[in-house]
């Protein structure tokens, strides 16, 4: 699955994080040259690893050079596109958290002023190694409880790291503590060492809070001190309690403001902390956006809007949505899927793509008569135009149902479904014309065969009031700029809405008897309902005529990633199958000259575990250990000339040496057999014997 990493430098700590994938998940190394596969001879059985230096560049196969060049081009394209996507995601998440971060920042500075109003110790008091004795009110620890709404732990790390950087940029002294700093093994000393390491840039032992007080009193007393704990539910309650009590005692010398992340509910602190620690807290509540809201923002910026120039197919989108849900709504997992998807996107060289561009399945369906550069350019232009229309309709549907918890990820999966698009039929197929929304008969049209989310969004329009409808049409107008086919219809409906508003205001100015007031109100409601129906009909026509999925457009294979199996293998993997393949096709990994690729013959030079697994293929569910061992022994101990019977009987001393050698060889073979069986058990391909059947092992995996 991956190219060889023998020559690569050791990875850094950042290289093994969940969100920093290396591009060897999907990309595969080119096949070996034929000269490297040739065996050096069949008579020699000792394994020989080819350590010869690489051939000069001028003697390489031109096809291999071309493949290397194409690989470099694909990697450059990947790096460029992924950097753009990564930057877009970073900006989106920053914009989502801006309002909450600004609110927390304002609260921190107000709290700092409140603490300073209680009194500021002089330099002598501030540098003493004991806290200032004050009343109970002066020992309150201002605490911000940030509700993450059950965000995954990985997402919490990113969010609170960004919060720390934001507060530092505003002049605060910030330290980020994780749940690993609050474990019972290290006690409160682990928290203090982490604080000193971040504030003083050094680790002192023993750790003492008075050192931090001296540091703050000497030259850092003008700015607040903020301590961020990302998830209190993962912390040891007793250590966190002692930490809170200690900070509250020193709050006059060190104006500490505590910010703690809460994943589930705000009542969690009462279940973790004892009453004496809770009494020291002065809590304030802040709420971050839900994972679904953050996901919608990422989907809109990366997949719906033209961010990177590529799209994904329906099956891939459904898999990514299910993967997001199965990972407990982890935004990091979705971003990880995007990166793996991007790695796998650039699989064809430009030459191969250009050579077969008119033979693509989507192109064959439309039967293009002219296969020229001009026709191809026109097709690409048409694809771009249709995608802009699709994008505008999807966003119109999203803003319509956003207030009613319509999720963009679900809407996106329905909007790119080619089968659903092909089933969209009306009983009366009338084209969207200028006066279609003005016709009262349009309200009797049968409903469009559509998905649940799309149907819900259209249904919501019919229940809008005149004021809500006016705001929605204004948003539609902005979203459809550049698409006159839709934008003109939205403007027409807006003008009709203004006329109805003018009529209603004139009726309100006329003084009428009370018996006519109810009739006028009823007429106004009917007019409003008529306009809502017309807006719903317009949205329905937009879905029918302008929301064409990319998989229904010619040449979409060039820009659309549809290989869901490749993505699934890269994200979830199939380790058991990979192990079986490697054991059966070990020549591709070892590159030894003694083993002939494609041959089923078992040789003593093969890896012991590979020999054992190949022998296991001859058995059923159960493997007789004695027979298995004898087969293994016959392979690894092939008779040689030294073991043939000589014509003369050996001397007694030589016979003794031969017996000892044979005993040592037997013990060594048994040890190799046991080690290979253990390796097969560890890899999950074999179940060891039980007390009921001690002579049989059981195979677990069958087939590939």
From TrEMBL:
<dbReference type="GO" id="GO:0005656">
    <property type="term" value="C:nuclear pre-replicative complex"/>
</dbReference>
<comment type="similarity">
    <text>Belongs to the ORC3 family.</text>
</comment>
<feature type="region of interest" description="Disordered">
    <location>
        <begin position="31"/>
        <end position="70"/>
    </location>
</feature>
<feature type="domain" description="Origin recognition complex subunit 3 winged helix C-terminal">
    <location>
        <begin position="576"/>
        <end position="702"/>
    </location>
</feature>
<dbReference type="Pfam" id="PF18137">
    <property type="entry name" value="WHD_ORC"/>
</dbReference>
<keyword id="KW-0238">DNA-binding</keyword>
<dbReference type="InterPro" id="IPR045667">
    <property type="entry name" value="ORC3_N"/>
</dbReference>
<feature type="compositionally biased region" description="Basic residues">
    <location>
        <begin position="641"/>
        <end position="656"/>
    </location>
</feature>
<feature type="compositionally biased region" description="Acidic residues">
    <location>
        <begin position="61"/>
        <end position="70"/>
    </location>
</feature>
<keyword id="KW-0539">Nucleus</keyword>
<dbReference type="Pfam" id="PF07034">
    <property type="entry name" value="ORC3_N"/>
</dbReference>
<protein>
    <submittedName>
        <fullName>Origin of replication complex subunit 3 isoform X2</fullName>
    </submittedName>
</protein>
<dbReference type="GO" id="GO:0003688">
    <property type="term" value="F:DNA replication origin binding"/>
</dbReference>
<keyword id="KW-0235">DNA replication</keyword>
<dbReference type="GO" id="GO:0006270">
    <property type="term" value="P:DNA replication initiation"/>
</dbReference>
<dbReference type="GO" id="GO:0031261">
    <property type="term" value="C:DNA replication preinitiation complex"/>
</dbReference>
<dbReference type="InterPro" id="IPR020795">
    <property type="entry name" value="ORC3"/>
</dbReference>
<feature type="region of interest" description="Disordered">
    <location>
        <begin position="640"/>
        <end position="669"/>
    </location>
</feature>
<dbReference type="GO" id="GO:0005664">
    <property type="term" value="C:nuclear origin of replication recognition complex"/>
</dbReference>
<dbReference type="InterPro" id="IPR040855">
    <property type="entry name" value="ORC_WH_C"/>
</dbReference>
<feature type="domain" description="Origin recognition complex subunit 3 N-terminal">
    <location>
        <begin position="62"/>
        <end position="339"/>
    </location>
</feature>
